[in-house]
């Protein structure tokens, strides 16, 4: 009987990964060898045993951007959107798997997810200056698309102001030296008093940290701010662009050669393939939607994902207005993808209702539904993972949030009374 | 629901899945396993592979406990998954397909559209070559007790210029070489199967035509569908076993399909529970 947590790696992981030192008591230092006194996982399992931990998959866990899936222990990477990672149940997208984001309407929330996915890959290259942990392959888009990649979230405007003040105070200047002895301490005391009065201190203590931040996987996910630009922008080591031609074989060969080149240099590298706006007429030839081009292309991408199952993940987006979910194109793409979500922005009436219901709490206003069509690994095993109308999303500066959906309750309007003349008044008139 | 209500999955009235009578006969049976989005038949395929290889079906039938080594040759032709997928998933059934001498995997997935079929617009000859290789692989196996699985052949109809009649002709050649052929195909309404479609080049028309003709040629069929009443946490979907257009007993006397409908539930650790409906 083992009391090890599901997310812990058995006989895998490496303390050699920067910043992934054993974080807590009870976490055994792990290396490539087996844990003393414990035999390696046997390939043949009894019928009632758990999903096996794959011994060959552990090499991918040397990458600081990879952690084991909470469900299957497969190496998993973050999509760059924390709530989406949770929605996928694996705490991310397992390596060798793909995610299709379908979106109805004329909005472009899918690009927020895609941009965070790309930014996350680039951020993983900035953990150590000399270490390339990740590479992005952007298919069918221009370099212009990456100019708007979101930067890191630096806190709220209040936090940023405080940080600026602190930075200024730490500088050596005459005024700072004059107030250094008494002034600063009294201000801190005042802050504390005010904080105590409004219960800020207790809030800080009770606020539970993000699940990833205090764990051994501190580089696994970053929080992005869509109003900030990623600076410095991606360079040739971070991202490659593959234009879409009319030969699926050439396209696949190009992608495959980029993967091979990077895997050769670093066998534990994570390659993120991003295909924003698949079949969007602005970037794709009309003939690209022909089944004899599109299906072989997507099928071959699936084959690449399986071939490099320790290195490659893919996220693509598709407009459901151009290719509705009840069309053959969307069906084939869904069946070839390992996971699929459908973003369904609210119509005008629903938006107005939510705005009325949350007029005093604008931060609670959601923008649409997230329907789950497929989830990695689980759907393939035969589990029914279709969830429609159960989750909603809201896109804010701070993050793309996904939460459980509930129809907001509108405050009952004050009773209006009709006067004898046919007018209305809010006062109850007794005659 | 308590585990005491669990039912065993049975396809024939002799309480079997892949019946011994089929393997001993000289007939070639054809069966269709159809599914829709949300009811992947991976667990059923794995159980049928297990039953054909060693006679047991640990996940779906507790009565089939007698293990028979090398019961039949299993040839799996997949257009959707690699061999690793089956090796991993069949471990739950106690099978090690990587080393099992009676298991042959024909990979029609990894290099299908990069090496095997390079011109999907004119793919008839390339598809014929592909099936030529499959047929020669099956023919090389000397044991006559062969069970063949073909997974997702509809991809050829959707992605290439091959017509449904061409594919049917090739599949029937494969069928003649085996005692039992299982064709696993998706049958999502409107997106794959739509009887109103009329354009002969339309993938939906081709898939519909293919499935209708296969149903007319089959001996028994298995259909997996989600609950019509909507999603439930403790039920994944329903499984219906039905006789095809050509009855089994017309080919193999005294063998009758056990026409039943089950509801099933798959748990996160891939355990299967079946209940008669």
Automatic annotation (TrEMBL), chain A:
Pfam families hit by this protein: PAXNEB
Keywords in alphabetical order: Cytoplasm, Nucleus, tRNA processing
Composition skew (Polar residues), residue ranges: 421-431
GO terms, biological process: regulation of transcription by RNA polymerase II; tRNA wobble uridine modification
Cellular component GO terms, alphabetical: cytoplasm; elongator holoenzyme complex; transcription elongation factor complex
GO function term, MF aspect, one: identical protein binding
Region (Disordered): 1-42, 410-431
Presence of keyword DNA-binding: no
Compartment(s) of residence: Cytoplasm; Nucleus
Source taxon at top rank: Eukaryota
Pathways involved: tRNA modification; 5-methoxycarbonylmethyl-2-thiouridine-tRNA biosynthesis
Gene3D superfamilies: P-loop containing nucleotide triphosphate hydrolases (3.40.50.300)
Keyword Nucleus attached: yes
Similarity annotation: Belongs to the ELP4 family.
Protein name: Elongator complex protein 4
Source organism per UniProt: Scheffersomyces stipitis (strain ATCC 58785 / CBS 6054 / NBRC 10063 / NRRL Y-11545)
UniProtKB/TrEMBL annotation, chain B:
Pathway named in the protein's UniProt entry: tRNA modification; 5-methoxycarbonylmethyl-2-thiouridine-tRNA biosynthesis
Domain of life assignment: Eukaryota
Gene3D superfamilies per record: P-loop containing nucleotide triphosphate hydrolases
Swiss-Prot/TrEMBL GO biological process terms: tRNA wobble uridine modification
Any one Gene Ontology cellular component term annotated for this protein: elongator holoenzyme complex
Family, per entry: Belongs to the ELP6 family.
Name the UniProt record assigns to this protein: Elongator complex protein 6
């Amino acid at each position: 009987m083992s009391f090890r947590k599901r997310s812990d790696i058995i006989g895998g992981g490496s303390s050699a990964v920067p910043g992934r030192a054993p974080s807590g008591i009870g976490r055994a230092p792990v290396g490539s060898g087996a844990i003393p006194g414990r035999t390696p996982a046997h390939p043949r399992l009894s019928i009632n045993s758990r999903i096996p931990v794959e011994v060959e998959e552990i090499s991918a866990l040397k990458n600081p951007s990879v952690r084991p899936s909470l469900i299957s222990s497969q190496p998993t990477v973050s999509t760059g959107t924390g709530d989406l990672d949770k929605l996928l149940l694996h705490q991310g997208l397992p390596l060798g798997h793909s995610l299709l984001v379908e979106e109805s309407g004329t909005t472009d929330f899918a690009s927020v997810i895609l941009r965070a996915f790309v930014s996350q890959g680039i951020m993983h290259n900035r953990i150590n200056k000399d270490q390339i942990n990740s590479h992005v392959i952007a298919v069918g888009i221009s370099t212009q698309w990456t100019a708007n990649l979101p930067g890191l979230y630096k806190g709220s405007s209040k936090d940023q102001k405080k940080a600026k003040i602190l930075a200024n105070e730490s500088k050596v200047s005459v005024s700072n030296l004059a107030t250094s002895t008494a002034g600063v301490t009294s201000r801190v005391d005042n802050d504390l008093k005010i904080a105590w009065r409004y219960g800020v201190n207790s809030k800080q203590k009770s606020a539970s940290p993000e699940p990833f931040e205090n764990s051994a996987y501190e580089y696994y996910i970053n929080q992005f701010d869509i109003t900030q630009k990623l600076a410095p922008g991606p360079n040739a080591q971070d991202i490659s662009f593959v234009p879409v031609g009319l030969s699926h074989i050439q396209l696949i060969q190009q992608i495959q050669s980029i993967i091979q080149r990077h895997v050769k240099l670093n066998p534990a590298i994570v390659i993120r393939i991003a295909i924003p706006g698949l079949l969007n007429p602005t970037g794709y030839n009309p003939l690209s939607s022909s089944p004899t081009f599109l299906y072989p292309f997507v099928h071959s991408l699936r084959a690449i994902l399986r071939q490099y199952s320790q290195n490659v993940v893919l996220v693509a987006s598709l407009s459901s207005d151009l290719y509705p979910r009840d069309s053959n194109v969307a069906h084939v793409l869904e069946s070839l993808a390992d996971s699929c979500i459908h973003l369904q922005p609210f119509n005008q009436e629903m938006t107005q209702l939510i705005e009325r219901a949350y007029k005093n709490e604008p931060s609670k206003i959601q923008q649409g539904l997230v329907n789950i069509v497929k989830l990695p690994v689980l759907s393939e095993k035969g589990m029914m993972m279709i969830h429609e109308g159960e989750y909603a999303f809201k896109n804010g500066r701070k993050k793309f949030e996904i939460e459980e959906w509930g129809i907001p309750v509108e405050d009952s309007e004050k009773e209006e009374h009709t006067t004898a003349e046919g007018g209305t008044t809010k006062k109850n008139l007794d005659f | 629901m308590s585990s005491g209500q669990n039912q065993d999955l049975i396809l024939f009235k002799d309480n079997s899945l892949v019946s011994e009578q089929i393997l001993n006969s000289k007939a070639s049976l054809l069966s269709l396993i159809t599914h829709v989005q949300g009811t992947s038949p991976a667990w059923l395929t794995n159980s049928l592979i297990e039953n054909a290889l060693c006679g047991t079906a640990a996940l779906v039938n507790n009565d089939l406990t007698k293990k028979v080594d090398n019961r039949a040759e299993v040839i799996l032709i997949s257009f959707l998954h690699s061999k690793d997928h089956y090796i991993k998933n069949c471990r739950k059934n106690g099978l090690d397909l990587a080393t099992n001498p009676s298991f042959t995997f024909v990979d029609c997935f990894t290099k299908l559209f990069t090496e095997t079929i390079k011109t999907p617009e004119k793919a008839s000859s390339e598809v014929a070559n592909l099936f030529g290789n499959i047929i020669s692989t099956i023919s090389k196996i000397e044991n006559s007790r062969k069970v063949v699985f073909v997974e997702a052949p509809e991809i050829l109809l959707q992605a290439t210029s091959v017509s449904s009649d061409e594919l049917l002709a090739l599949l029937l050649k494969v069928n003649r070489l085996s005692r039992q052929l299982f064709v696993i195909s998706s049958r999502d309404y409107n997106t794959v199967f739509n009887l109103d479609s009329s354009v002969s080049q339309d993938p939906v028309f081709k898939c519909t035509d293919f499935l209708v003709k296969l149903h007319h040629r089959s001996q028994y069929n298995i259909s997996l569908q989600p609950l019509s009443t909507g999603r439930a946490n403790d039920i994944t979907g329903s499984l219906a076993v039905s006789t095809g257009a050509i009855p089994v007993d017309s080919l193999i006397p005294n063998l009758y399909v056990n026409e039943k409908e089950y509801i099933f539930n798959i748990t996160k650790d891939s355990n299967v529970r079946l209940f008669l409906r």
